[in-house]
Amino acid sequence: MKLDSTQKYNGSKIYEGSKNDQLETFRSNHTNQKLTTNQAVKVTNTDDSLKAGNRGPTLMEDFHFREKLTHFDHERIPERVVHARGFGVHGYFQVYESMKEYTKAKFLQNPSIKTPVFVRFSTVVGSRGSADTVRDARGFATKFYTEDGNYDLVGNNIPVFFIQDAIKFPDVVHALKPEPHNEIPQASAAHDTFWDFVVNTPETAHMIMWLLSDRAIPRSFRMMEGFGVNTFRFVNAEGKGRFVKFHWKPLLGVHSLVWDEAQKLAGKDPDYHRRDIWDAINMGEFPEYELGV
Ligand code: HEM
């Protein structure tokens, strides 16, 4: 998989494969088009509103003004409960050799097809505006736009998980999020409610060892592994099933920050990880990962 952000909405066709033709319908290019309201009424600008005389109040009959403010008032969608802080990048996936023996999934059959992907990297605990370099697990979620339909592979950069039984997920997340009485701390596991959960939940021990290791402070999204965590099932055309795990391996290798660097960066450049991948792609240094099964 190569992340090069070339699937921008620029109307140009980049990769082979019929999925790209389908996606074309959703790409639009607004260059040289007239400025309009949402109802397609042409407007010369979007800076002036209708007033009652030179110094009068703004008039409710100015539908363009009301549309602009109403739109603005509704721009926010509720923040995600977990993985609120994330950054997405376009790219493509290409299989080295056909996986036909193991699966009938279309995008794993033909090494000459480039399947468009969108990958979202995220932290887990912090709010949407929190710092990138906090000690936390990272999400590594890949959406493959395959010819059979979209295939989502969510991953974390840590191969195990806090809990075995999904019913404890609300509890581990409540414990990780800021304390209820003072809303402290942001984007961090180092506080009482979390440690209370840990001591009462022995199955967290393995993930805690990972969380307190260097893996929880990656140097870059480009130098981070991804793990499907769960076990999945491949089914081939004959209907034979096999259990599989998914691992993403960055070609740049796995690298981490040290704790002191991570803490300083969180203050000096809270956008450190998103800036790193943005700058790398703009310089033509496209991150690459191998998917191991
Ligand atoms: C019982 C266990 C789990 C529950 C209930 C759960 C629940 C959730 C929820 C509610 C979201 C937010 C969705 C949204 O608002 O957009 C989410 C996102 C996510 N989860 Fe989990 N999760 C669980 C386990 C896992 C595991 C084991 C992994 C690692 C493979 C994982 C990886 C992710 C990732 C990467 C995202 C962000 C996806 C994105 O970037 O859009 N989760 N999860």
Automatic annotation (TrEMBL):
Alphabetized UniProt keyword annotations: Heme, Hydrogen peroxide, Iron, Metal-binding, Oxidoreductase, Peroxidase
GO terms under biological process: hydrogen peroxide catabolic process; response to oxidative stress
Catalytic activity, EC: 1.11.1.6
Residue ranges constituting the Catalase core domain according to the UniProt record: 36-293
Superkingdom of origin organism: Bacteria
A GO molecular function held by the record: metal ion binding
Statement: the UniProt record of this protein carries the keyword Metal-binding: yes
GO terms for cellular component: cytosol
Keyword field contains Oxidoreductase: yes
The protein's required cofactors: heme
PANTHER family linked to this entry: CATALASE, CATALASE-B
Name of the protein: catalase
Biological source species: Clostridium magnum DSM 2767
Gene coding for it: katE_1
